[in-house]
Amino acid sequence: MKKNVIAALTVILILIAGTVIYTNMKASANLSEDAIGDMLEERYDGEVKEIRTGNEQEEDIYQVELAAREGTYYIVVLAETGEILEMELLEHNEDGEGKDRQTLTVDEISERVLDSVDGDATILEVEQREEEGRTIYHVTVDQEGGTGTFELDAVSGEVLLYTQEEDEPEQQEPISEDEAIKIALREFQGEVDDVDLEQKDGRLVYDIEIENDDADVEADIIIDAYTGEVISVTFDN
Q1: DSSP state of 155
Q2: Based on CB atoms within 10 Å of each CB, which residue in 33, 46, 113, 189 is the most buried?
Q3: How many Å apart are CA 211 and CA 194, to the nearest integer?
Q4: Fold annotation for 177-236
Q5: Can you give the residue ranges of the PepSY domain (predicted)?
Q6: Taking the model in full, what pTM does it have?
Q7: What Å distances lie between residue 236 and 47, 130, 225, 230, CA to CA?
Q8: Reported CATH class of domain 31-166
């Protein structure tokens, strides 16, 4: 009895130690709060007021409140890479600056957007709108990892809102019936008697029957319709 208790406690301690080690390794791979703060302060010429850690879709993030010339921003940053996932202007500084200035051009707005994006990006669309007595540019960009959407003040160029929508993985096309037959014939020589494309156990497969009259044997070959992997081969005399 005593040995069983000791063994159980040993297993629990090992699991706890493993969890701590994994957590520490994951945390060490992330950028520090200071590094994130310095990056944002330099990029947006502001001062970080608060940084909180969090988790979003199983990714470690930093939630940052940044005071800049235009106002106070809420920024979500991916902890591992420093990529900005979301940016929103929480409070605008009503100091009257820019009221008599002209609206920025599309080229000027586009340049500001591209300067703020990490990595390569392409402007997809720029649209100017009037919202609550304020002229706003809505800019859509194609960037690494997905499509980004910016809302900017048309006079000052300040970023009011930024969101990114991740690209959906491309839908893979199944291999052709002819390709599936070639794969099946490499497994068993004979005459193809029947080919069916069907779902089996939640998997799209080709079910191919091949007869060999000389050997008086029939083979039933199951092939993954996307990868071409031979899942099973069964024989019937």
Answers
A1: T
A2: 113
A3: 9
A4: Nuclear Transport Factor 2; Chain: A, (3.10.450)
A5: 104-160, 174-233
A6: 0.43
A7: 75, 74, 23, 18
A8: alpha beta
